[in-house]
Model the fold of this input.
Amino acid sequence: MQELLKVAMPKGRIYKQASKLFREAGLAIPDDADDSRKLIIQVPEANMEFIMAKPVDVPTYVEYGVADIGVVGKDVLMEENRDVYELLDLGIARCRMSVIALPDWQPVINPRVATKYPNVASQYFREQGQQVEVIKLNGSIELAPMIGLADRIVDMVETGSTIRENGLKEYEQIFSITSRLIANRVSYRMKNNAIQALCDRLQPAIAAATAGAGK
Ligand SMILES: Nc1ncnc2c1ncn2[C@@H]1O[C@H](COP(=O)(O)OP(=O)(O)OP(=O)(O)O)[C@@H](O)[C@H]1O
Ligand SMILES: O=P(O)(O)OC[C@H]1O[C@H](OP(=O)(O)OP(=O)(O)O)[C@H](O)[C@@H]1O
Done:
């Protein structure tokens, strides 16, 4: 019998895709665990316990070892910069991090950039040699250039419909994003059999899903 794995699972849009991938890997994972208000869900069929977390908190739970492994977007991993192992690119929740502004944007004297990702944005503009004031927001980032809070934003683009519907334009793509499987450093050693077995099951499922999506 392998060790129980505590898994930090993001509630919201990643959960459905992650649980589908886990099922395709042969694990009996429910697809509706995030529909209830329960925050800790036992999945005895897969010898797992899910900790249903806010996506941005997943790396924190994993770094502190209260979860052995977790599923999290690359955007959050880059922003949070936690001390965890990144084990697998799950290929799900594909989107990109971009610089967005109004279509008539021109460089301004005191540029302001609004974003949910202040560390990523600051590093990007520093590397570009541009001095900007970064304003942290927690959602509806696209509002910022529309109402004059910032002249640019750094945010996620998937289908492009949010920027289209708000009359904005994507200027630069900073990096592409998918969700990753991460592990606590100690758990990776202590529960190596269980974690390795999970990776071995997930890998062909990821390859099949990626081939199926024509990517
Ligand atoms: N439009 C999108 N399309 C695909 N993936 C996305 C999109 N937006 C975000 N993601 C990915 O999904 C992850 C979780 O996003 P989600 O919107 O569920 O959470 P959140 O906005 O961080 O949390 P909350 O809903 O609690 O504010 C992101 O970190 C990113 O990796
Ligand atoms: O290109 P699209 O397919 O339109 O997706 C992009 C949108 O999705 C995310 O927002 P989310 O739904 O997480 O809402 P938020 O504003 O609360 O971050 C992101 O912040 C964009 O606003």
